[in-house]
Structure formats: structure tokens, C-alpha cells
Specification:
single chain; 400 residues; alpha/beta; Aspartate Aminotransferase, domain 1; Aspartate Aminotransferase, domain 2; 2 domains; seven-stranded mixed beta sheet; 14 helices; binds pyridoxal-5'-phosphate
Length: 400
């Protein structure tokens, strides 16, 4: 048999999904393991949205739709973007697809020729690096350390740009760091992008999950020149607890959306039609349920961060968005715990799962080998038990 595609063979498994699968298997085997790996809200989809999906099915909204989504949903997206992000788009500038993940992939497919470079500030969501390689791009990773609050600086960005740079994959609020850029920080970064004529792929999927009164500045709201260079990505998964419905969207200049539309029409076709109708309700119906979930996340974050920073050997910054905490284990590197020397986050994660019975995600795949990501998209009760187990695990290993 001839070999499979080299590009396809080189795609790595998602480390977050791998950890979650392992956790689910241990749980199915009857082991009392706690899971903090999943990147999805633990809340059910709000009832008004579920009912809109049910009535779409009952009323036969179950056929093909235009490949880029129904007009009603595009209008709802324009309405929400204007209301929440202060950016004006026309429905012709919107493409709806099967999740923000697929939007990101299709954008890269549309922008990239082999050999183009894609800038990715790290720590970054695992899929960015893989997706860039899947379309034949060269990912250029820019490490952004904890002392810079994991944020990209204009100097670092400028230094990474070459004649081959096509775009930057920019995630705000960030998975995994939970950091949120200020408007001033975004202005200087986008100035550099516009100066070098780079596309800015602005993944704002966590934009509704902000804490301590932080406000979102959508990149596309920073003036016409920035908007022209921006391809905005968002979706209903995280804000409305709709991860399984698979609806994401992008907003861009019609030069871009027209090409994407042709690509989709020959590949996926439209995203699920009942899920599109449910998403209309999510976007134009009450937003109170989002606020209720956001408040719960904020309370959990406060608890987790406070507990973690009281424990020996580890620390974390207080994130302002999304639902993740980055635990710094750099002080434990080289130490022996339960008879095993810890050389990196993977080894810590493995040991913590086996001895501490808690599943968290080592951030090696995110570009941060001395950090592990905790998701607080789980109940307060679980979080309390998880923090207790972490404390016992560290103290039991003699960490002071
Ligand atoms: C940064 C980021 N972008 C995009 C996505 C994908 O979201 P969706 O469920 O809409 O595909 C995720 C999901 O984990 C994410 O963390």
C-alpha cells in the first residue's frame, strides 16, 4: 500500500482530548478520579435554546441550508457583534460553520499557500499549531512568559515577522492562560500587524467570560484599517454552553467570505440546520443565562486561585477570562515525588492522575512545559475536592 499523506500522518492527537478520554476511561472503570481537563461549560444548554432546537426539528427545519448558514442566523450574529463588540458587519460578511474550530481551519485553508508562516503567541490552544501544519504553513511560535502575563509584546511580534508571514492567530481571552488584553495593548499589537499587512485571525470565543469587571475589546473594533485585516472568529459553544451543537462563525471582508463560501460548498456544506435555528435563539434571546454562568465561573475561579496560591511548591496568576487556571510547577522540576523525579509537566500530570486521582492538562502541547491547566468549568464541590487532593498530593510528597 502506498503511504498516507505525510502532512496527515504528522498531525498529533489533541492533548486535552487525550487526557479527557483517559479520565473518562478511569471513571468508567469505577475509579474515584476527578476531571479538570475538559474545555466545556458543565452547565446544560439553557432551556429557551433547547426548545428552539426542538421546534426546529418538529417544524422540519431539517433540510440543507446555504453552505454558509441561514440569513436569520447571520442577522442574529451581526446584531450580537454590534451590541457586544461594537463592530458593524453585514450578513454577507458572515460565514457560519460547524464550530469555531472549523472556522479557524477553513480560514487557514483560505489564507495559506505552502511555506507561508503563521505567527502563534504561546502558550496557545493546542489546535493552532496542528491546524497551521495541516494546511502546509510553517508555525512560528513566540513564547510569552508568565512574567509578561503570558502576553505578546509588539517588540516580540515585530521580531518574528518575515517576508513569508501571512497571519497571526490571536486568542483573547486566552485558552489556556485566561489572560485578557487591554485595549491599549491591542492597539499597539494591531498597529504592527497593519504595518506589515498581516491578516489577524482574532479568536474571541471566550469573549463573554470575563471577570473583575474586565471588558472585551474586539480587535475588529479598533478602526477600519484593523477591521479590514481582521477575520473575527466566535461561536456559541462557550458562551451558551452549546459545545455539542457545533455552531461557530467568522466575520470578514467579503473578498474573504466569498472564497470561504466556495470552499465550504464543496466540503462540509451547511452546519446542522436545527442547531442553526437554536443558535438564533441563543444570540437574540435573553442573555441573562450567560450572566448566571459567568458569575458561577467567577466564584469558582476566585476559590481555585486562592487555594492554589496557599499551597507549597506551586503558584498561579489570577486569570481575568475564559475558565482556565495555569498552575506553575517550575519549583518542582528536578524534585523527587513519590519516588519519581519530575522533569516536566507531563510527568507531573501523569503522577498526579495515578497517585492523586485528579486529571489536569499538562501544557507541553500548549508551549508551556512547566505549567498544567486546570479547567474550572466544573462544580464548586468538585473544585473543593480537587484542591484538597492537590494539597494532600503535594504535602504527602514532602513539598514545603
Ligand atoms: C481558543 C479556542 N478556540 C476555539 C475553540 C473551538 O470552539 P468550538 O466548540 O466552537 O469549535 C476552542 C475550544 O476549546 C478554544 O478553546
Amino acid at each position: 500500500m502506498k503511504p498516507l499523506s505525510t502532512i496527515a500522518e504528522n498531525v498529533k492527537e489533541s492533548s486535552t482530548l487525550a487526557m479527557d478520554t483517559l479520565y473518562k476511561k478511569m471513571k468508567a472503570d469505577g475509579i474515584d478520579v476527578l476531571g479538570f481537563a475538559a474545555g466545556e461549560p458543565d452547565f446544560p444548554t439553557p432551556d429557551n435554546i433547547k426548545m428552539a432546537g426542538v421546534s426546529a426539528i418538529v417544524n422540519n427545519a431539517t433540510k440543507y441550508t446555504p453552505a454558509t448558514g441561514i440569513l436569520q442566523l447571520k442577522e442574529a450574529i451581526c446584531h450580537r457583534l454590534l451590541e457586544d463588540c461594537n463592530v458593524h458587519y453585514e450578513p454577507s460578511q458572515i460565514v457560519v460553520s460547524s464550530g469555531a474550530k472549523h472556522c479557524l481551519y477553513i480560514i487557514l485553508r483560505t489564507l495559506i499557500d505552502p511555506g507561508d508562516e503563521v505567527i502563534i503567541p504561546t502558550p496557545a490552544w493546542v489546535s493552532y499549531n496542528e491546524m497551521a501544519q495541516m494546511v502546509g504553513a510553517t508555525p512560528v511560535l513566540i513564547p510569552c512568559p508568565e512574567e509578561d502575563h503570558f502576553k505578546l509584546t509588539p517588540e516580540k511580534l515585530e521580531a518574528a515577522i518575515t517576508d513569508q508571514t501571512k497571519c497571526i492567530l490571536f486568542n483573547n481571552p486566552s485558552n489556556p492562560t485566561g489572560m485578557v488584553y487591554t485595549k491599549e495593548e491591542l492597539i499597539v499589537l494591531t498597529d504592527v500587524c497593519v504595518k506589515h499587512d498581516l491578516y489577524i485571525i482574532a479568536d474571541e470565543i471566550y469573549y463573554k467570560l470575563l471577570y473583575d469587571g474586565a471588558q472585551i475589546t474586539s480587535i475588529a473594533s479598533l478602526g477600519e484599517a484593523v477591521k479590514e485585516h481582521t477575520i473575527l472568529v466566535n461561536g456559541v459553544s462557550k458562551s451558551y454552553a452549546m459545545t455539542g451543537w457545533r455552531i461557530g462563525y467568522l466575520a470578514a471582508d467579503t473578498k474573504v467570505t466569498k472564497v470561504i463560501a466556495r470552499y465550504l460548498s464543496h466540503s462540509t456544506g451547511n452546519p446542522s440546520s436545527p442547531a442553526q435555528t437554536a443558535s438564533v435563539e441563543a444570540l437574540i434571546g435573553t442573555q441573562d443565562t450567560v450572566e448566571t454562568m459567568r458569575e458561577a465561573f467567577e466564584e469558582r475561579r476566585n476559590y481555585m486561585v486562592e487555594r492554589m496560591n496557599q499551597m507549597p511548591g506551586i503558584s498561579c496568576l489570577k486569570p481575568q477570562g475564559a475558565f482556565y487556571v495555569m498552575m506553575n510547577i517550575s519549583k518542582l522540576i528536578g524534585k523527587t515525588m513519590y519516588g519519581q523525579t519530575i522533569n516536566n509537566a507531563d510527568e507531573f500530570g501523569d503522577l498526579f492522575l495515578k497517585k492523586g486521582l485528579v486529571c489536569i492538562v499538562p501544557c507541553t502541547g500548549f508551549g508551556a512545559p512547566e505549567f498544567l491547566r486546570w479547567s474550572y468549568a466544573t462544580s464548586m464541590d468538585n473544585i473543593k475536592r480537587g484542591m484538597d487532593r492537590l494539597e494532600e498530593f503535594l504535602i504527602g510528597a514532602g513539598i514545603e
